[in-house]
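RETRY 2/3 - previous attempt timed out on the joint model. Re-submitting the same 402-residue input unchanged.
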Amino acid sequence: MVAKLTLRTHARDEVHDLTAELREVVAASGIRQGLCLVYCPHTTAAVVVNEGYDPAVTRDVTDVLNRLIPWQASYRHAEGNTAAHLKAIFCGASQTLAIVDGRLVVGAWQAVQFYEFDGPRQREVQVTLVETTA
Amino acid sequence: MVAKLTLRTHARDEVHDLTAELREVVAASGIRQGLCLVYCPHTTAAVVVNEGYDPAVTRDVTDVLNRLIPWQASYRHAEGNTAAHLKAIFCGASQTLAIVDGRLVVGAWQAVQFYEFDGPRQREVQVTLVETTA
Amino acid sequence: MVAKLTLRTHARDEVHDLTAELREVVAASGIRQGLCLVYCPHTTAAVVVNEGYDPAVTRDVTDVLNRLIPWQASYRHAEGNTAAHLKAIFCGASQTLAIVDGRLVVGAWQAVQFYEFDGPRQREVQVTLVETTA
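RETRY 2/3 succeeded.
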């Protein structure tokens, strides 16, 4: 089963929590056991699984990424968004999660998050569910 | 098929090799062909696939992570473990491996490792096996 | 279905685009819906999904990685390639992609890339396709 989530970002750096929408996709699929691939088809954004409770964490993550990979530096890429590509690689183009007993498995403090690194933009996230026979 | 590995960490930074336990889970499942998701449900630890032979490598990895993301800095998150969240994001919440001919596919020098970044704690790792029909 | 891609790298840092070969593997499999795991069995190389159009991006990525994780430093690992292990961990040992309607799902500007961090070497990439029943 395949689903597409769409979102609009409003700043260069921004984090969206996808967890609730993903839970709905899994529930609607009727799949009891399997995997859920949450995939970012963009090259300057990422999908992350981490702390979803205290928003101070995502602001800290953004700050540290900007310190390690500054927006302005002697980059070759003419578009000027090399830093966003680097952050996307470090954070990951996708996350894979389990579906067990019909529910998405996410830790108590975890959220599945979309990290925008080159907004504002219109973005999408591709969700692919795979059912297992075992 | 779903399995849970549990472990107890004893220091802030610690690495546990999960490879042998994962091989047992795969063998016990009887699955011949498919995928194995090794998932960390915590936000201050990670699952990594890398060198499992020389323990100096994991110590180097720990040192470099601590240099790039120091424990003490002007972080917003009140719990004081922002660095652990960052390291978890950089290293990854999960790893996906192949099952081929009933065996977990891991490179000759590779191990599947649990990286603790905010121990000591009681931790768990969720393993999900998916069998393919093709 | 399982396939193996082989490649020869010629420099310490090098990037190979695997996308066309992967599309062929998926087409040849006949799988209509599922997942494709692109796995690096080596500990000093990685598989990345990012910008595949402007080669300046991969050169920038290489430069930033070398700035953050210098080849020479006070590392413990006697082989002298600690930096390559670190880069492999940060970039990821594998990438998982979707197969939808018989085609590999890759974003418009994305490529699936093999990053060599300790070449020149003979390398391989293991591809595992999983078909879903849902």
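Strands of chain B lie at 2-8, 14-17, 33-39, 45-51, 94-100, 103-104, 110-116, 122-131. Closing ticket.
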